[in-house]
């Protein structure tokens, strides 16, 4: 591990201990060796004893930077795991991170534009509209059209801060892999590499602009999700310009209640949006914490979401999508044998796994859940427990599923916050069944054939020529194979003949030598030796050349 990594690691430990986060752990999670390790940092004391646990955790995440702020943002949505006090405290990480100076913001914007702000915008507001872990947002008016816009600009030196944490994580993950040996099951380096690609992508606002435009186009005709228009011609790597929207933060339940929002419909639409993005479009927003989501002020009886911050997007392979859908449907139907086989077919666990034992373990994990009402069963918890159970059977970690799992936890936490009686199963099962029917069977075959029709119509005229060329090539290859076989047989015949002569010469030489020792047969001995030498020479020179 590098000196920089050691320094950063020490800084992380120091911050955690200075905010007394070790004191928040229950006693059962603090064995003797934990206490020994804590005592080895005796000079670091808790400096914030007067603050609540939630405040300490939030301030520690702020101190550690963007990577850890993201962790706090995710946790803030899990009110089923955290108390209201903790959830409300961590929710401040979503858009209430301390801002940086407007002068630095102006300089960064003008550097990206290559000109002054006044050349493109009027009424630039120095007071930020929102300040998050990676970027800050300012309001302005587009000079060319008078349209209200927002300018999103990256924080100064944010790239260096994130790179330092990622480097430390990479070093730690490689150290863990060396300690674990060559293990296919647990791949921390792959997980960190996947997270690195994700978070570094969030530092490229030009990429985020492309993502937002693509997601907007996917939901143009939707009454569930609206993505603001992005002015891509004004977007750069550290600057993004987009339409200013007027909505209610999804976390502001009081205001949503006051306008008469249909919470049941809103929560169900959140689940539908998630499954539509994952299974229909294979392009899902993977950072849907409450700070990035607003609710329309229009038609509260038919509300729609407004999504922001498309820096982190996820995709899955076709096989991963199908296996996930089948996994959920098998769980709905309590088909544990199918779940076990799906894990093996997908390659998530080894093919040598005892299927019966794995099926029984899945059943033991799932059955108690069905003792509760469906609306109390956590979708994210099911997925988490399935992976946890599979780890006992050498689960091969799938980095591409980490974003999906995180997003599902976001969506579920948000839905339950809006409408605690939300039945994710009732909402999700029909969607998954329809999607599966479109992937297999006659309808799926027709759709795939229809999609590939332009390709085949283009290639069809070439088909007779391709068939003729392949038949001609096949005949030529068959002839070549016959020639190779003939040469091989000839080689073997020559080899056998040479070996026969060499063995015969050896026998004759031995006999001649024996007879030579018997003085009674000198002529016969000389004849055997001469004949043996002749056979050896003939056999040696007629051997096949390699």
UniProtKB/TrEMBL annotation:
Coiled-coil stretches noted in the UniProt entry, renumbered to this chain: none
Active site: 287 (proton acceptor)
Residue intervals of the ABC1 atypical kinase-like domain: 92-341
Chief location: membrane
GO CC term, one of those recorded: plasma membrane
A molecular-function term among this protein's GO annotations: ATP binding
GO biological process, one term: ubiquinone biosynthetic process
Pfam families in the record: ABC1 (PF03109)
Enzyme class name: transferase
Transmembrane domains' residue ranges: 500-517, 523-541
Associated pathway: Cofactor biosynthesis; ubiquinone biosynthesis [regulation]
Alphabetized UniProt keyword annotations: ATP-binding, Cell inner membrane, Cell membrane, Kinase, Membrane, Nucleotide-binding, Transferase, Transmembrane, Transmembrane helix, Ubiquinone, Ubiquinone biosynthesis
Homology family: Belongs to the ABC1 family. UbiB subfamily. Belongs to the protein kinase superfamily. ADCK protein kinase family.
Role this protein plays: Is probably a protein kinase regulator of UbiI activity which is involved in aerobic coenzyme Q (ubiquinone) biosynthesis.
HAMAP family, per the entry: UbiB
NCBIfam families linked to this entry: PRK04750.1, UbiB
Official protein name in the record: Probable protein kinase UbiB
